[in-house]
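hiii, so i know i said id send this last week but things got crazy w the move. better late than never?? heres the sequnce for the chain we talked about at the cafe, plus the structure i predicted for it. fair warning i was half asleep when i ran it
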Amino acid sequence: MFIRILTILMLITAHNIYASESIKLLSTTSSRDSGFLGHILPIFEKEYNIKVLPIILGTGQALVAAQNCDGDILLTHAPELEKEFINNKYGITRKPIMYNDFVIVGPKKDKFKISDHDNVVEVFETIRKNKLKFISRGDNSGTNFSELLIWEKLTFNPSKNNPSWYLQSGQGMGATLNIAIGMNAYTYTDRSTWIKYQNKQLHRILFQGDYLLLNEYSIILLNNKNCPNIKQDSAMLFYKWITSKKTKDIINNYKINGSQVFFTNKKLSND
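okay and structure toks below
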């Protein structure tokens, strides 16, 4: 009887360790604007009784915040920046957990035949050559970083060249879409936010499907030697949970208007 009571007390104590716990998740506007965090975080919180407090920033800003120990764990989508973060010993490990893709949206009439192009570099060249109004996030986010990598392939630096047709919103994806649609312009967006976005008016997806448009999301554990005050144990629980098979099913089952938004059934890079 005594052993049974002791066992129960130990289980209650173990549960209560996390009962009033919370962790700060440094994440991206697209993970919020797509509804993904609102879908997945309550499931974890209910299972572990750990509150997850999202801090929403562009990926570049989120990585800087993590270096400054302003969060407990990272969920971002800029693989090259993330690998650099790990190589610099700010993070312990990085695990790709899901992907979707980026798309080019613009006016439905598609006067410049964007949809007819074979690859996204050609699309960007058409935009540049014809000085089509383009709205960039310009906020050092994962989306912005991916967009700039495509301009690099044209040996074109829009920030340095400062063309009048290239405008930077300095805001999240939802706000950037509002500006693009209001100005009848083109923009570069993740598919999930576009599906979730309600104010499409006369805009549509004009180009998709290029391998350069892969949008990979990863979870990163921070290095507690660099940030000794982070809640490493609870962060580890979240890391193990979100990379588990059962959570993969939860991710794959998340849909907006009947469309699957994120995918885990592809072999993702972890180099």
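btw DSSP finds twelve helices and eleven strands in the chain. thought thatd interest u
miss u guys!!
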